[in-house]
Design brief:
- The protein contains twelve helices and twelve strands.
- By secondary structure, the chain is α/β, with parallel strands linked by helices.
- It folds into two domains: about 200 residues, inorganic pyrophosphatase (n-terminal core); about 120 residues, Diaminopimelate Epimerase, Chain A, domain 1, CATH 3.10.310.
- The strands form two sheets. Strands 3-2-1-4-5-6 form a six-stranded parallel β-sheet, with helices on one face. Strands 7-8-9-10-12-11 form a six-stranded mixed β-sheet.
- Helix 2 runs parallel beside helix 4 and helix 4 packs antiparallel against helix 5.
- It is globular, with a radius of gyration of 19 Å.
């Protein structure tokens, strides 16, 4: 845990202009933390922009009704960010996850602070504000708001609730605590609507997404006496199902519903030929350590990485590492 509250609050107080950014393929915790932090900092008079490497996925655009999230892919000129007083990297500590924003951060590394809850980290900054025991970066951002004495509004509470709820798996992951619910209750009191957020997150599937879910689950294979389940998604699966690449989000968690599963792995072929790999562990295997062997990272229970293709070679490498980790308990 690296929570220097006085140091962080002093940094925020001294900066007039700030740029918030997060990882590629942003999820609700990344986007929700950015939007919550935006609202908090603007409430104390700061000039703030959110600039990510990639555009917000279509399935998550509801979280940003005012369209405050910009992207390099959407036309933001990196040169326009040069005069920023402070860059805040949220929900990642890895260069590889920053995409094109990594070049911006490297160029201004003396003005970077990282706010994150992941265990693994690269040398993004000399200023860290991390709590690996926090269930979500959104939880840390909510605490920042409290420390700055910013009244919660619906615009702040809704994205933070979305981030908190998704990173706890709907408040069912082991990271969920009594304090998780106390934070959630404050966000609900401020205007976050659990039914509305749930509908946006889980009741917006297309028929293509449902077909892709069916293909993926049908192809899942178990090993080690049913304790390990491995699934794959090829580009042809996405195309034939009439789905989108973003429809692969959360598929690995669906395989955890199989009785007896203690370790779930999914490999997803990317349009550029690389392979996204996600690990979910309810066992002696540390998912973060497993991902780290391939240059990735995350949490003990949930982690991931990106590998170069071809797909068959990546599959062989990953399954061999998973088998070894399961046998040795690494």
């Amino acid at each position: 845990m690296r929570l220097d509250w006085r140091g962080l609050l002093d940094l925020l107080d001294a900066a007039g202009t700030m740029v918030l950014t997060s990882h590629v393929r942003p999820d609700c915790d990344a986007l929700g933390s950015e939007l919550g932090m935006l609202g908090i900092l603007e409430a104390v008079g700061k000039n703030v922009r959110i600039v990510n490497a990639q555009a917000t996925p279509a399935t998550l655009r509801w979280i940003d009704p005012r369209q405050r999230i910009e992207s390099l892919a959407g036309g933001v000129d990196p040169a326009s960010l040069a005069a920023t007083d402070l860059f805040i990297v949220l929900d990642t500590s890895a260069w590889a996850q920053l995409g094109a924003m990594g070049d911006v951060i490297r160029a201004h590394r003396d003005r970077v602070v990282v706010v994150d809850h992941h265990v693994s980290e690269d040398d993004l900054s000399d200023r860290w504000f991390k709590d690996p025991t926090a269930e979500a970066t959104a939880r840390i951002v909510a605490e920042i708001g409290l420390r700055l004495k910013v009244p919660l509004t619906e615009a702040i509470a809704t994205p933070l609730y979305a981030g908190l709820s998704t990173d706890t798996g709907g408040f069912r992951f082991p990271s969920t605590s009594g304090e998780t619910f106390r934070v959630a209750s404050r966000l609900v009191d401020a205007g976050a609507s659990p039914p509305a957020i749930y509908r946006e997150l889980f009741e917006q599937d297309t028929i293509g997404r449902l077909h892709l879910v069916g293909r993926t689950l049908a192809g899942a294979r178990v090993s080690h006496g049913g304790s390990v389940i491995t699934s794959v998604v090829r580009l042809a699966d996405i195309r034939d199902a009439g789905a989108l690449p973003s429809d692969t989000e959360d598929l690995v968690n669906l395989t955890l519903a199989v009785k007896g599963t203690a370790l779930a792995v999914i490999l997803i072929e990317q349009p550029d030929g690389r392979v996204k790999v996600s690990f979910r562990s309810r066992s002696h295997v540390d998912a973060s350590a497993l991902a780290a062997t391939f240059g990735g990272g995350g949490h003990r229970a949930a982690a991931g990485t990106i590998l170069p293709g071809p797909f068959d070679e990546a599959f062989a490498r990953v399954t061999a590492a998973v088998d070894a980790a399961w046998r040795t308990g690494a």
